[in-house]
Amino acid sequence: MQAVILAGGLGTRLWPLTKTVPKPMVPIAGTPYLEHQLRLLEQQSITDIVLLTGYLGEQIEEHFGDGSGLGLTIHYSRETTPLGTGGALRQAASLLADAFLVIYGDSYLPISYADVLNTLADSSATGVVTVYDNQTEDTGVTNNIALDEEGFVAKYKKDAADDTSLRYVEAGVLAFQRAVLDSIPSGNVSLEQQIFPQLIAERKLFGHVTRQRFYDIGTPERLERIAEQLT
What we know:
alpha/beta; two-stranded antiparallel ribbon; Spore Coat Polysaccharide Biosynthesis Protein SpsA, Chain A; 7-stranded mixed sheet; 231 residues; globular
């Protein structure tokens, strides 16, 4: 199994912490956040890792190297100009397996990642998005996904709190068939804003529902909350 981690963001909401440190390297319980994520993957025997770096990416590469110190094999693809989440994935095409996970470098979801890939394999979809129902425990993130009766994503709308059909929130773990790369044009491309709508229109994006809430390090307040989970 292969996991691709999006680790190139600027982390502006964590300024000044991220002025000199990339967001995935912000320390939690004395350890860079990204190391917590990598150790979780290793515990699940997911050792083929591709890190998509950007802002201050050399710090990530110098810290983890080839990944052998964590029992992993790590490859890197670093963007020199902003490419967005989709563009960064397209740039890494030569490193990607036939099916792979995509994990946001600022979120933590302790679930069985093999289950997400199995959902992809068992469906007719090109992509799977893991979704969480905020009614179980509020994450502080507005619901942004609706599923149809068969589990395909019917709608994705960010920051639409007034849309009651949006029962779920994207939880930061995706899975894709390599064929998704054919949908990504060159340049700066957002998976959520540009690729999700294409897959939804083609009925090629499926929802993997989890009852495990996710945590993220997007703001100082959320950083404190995730620290409680990882200490």
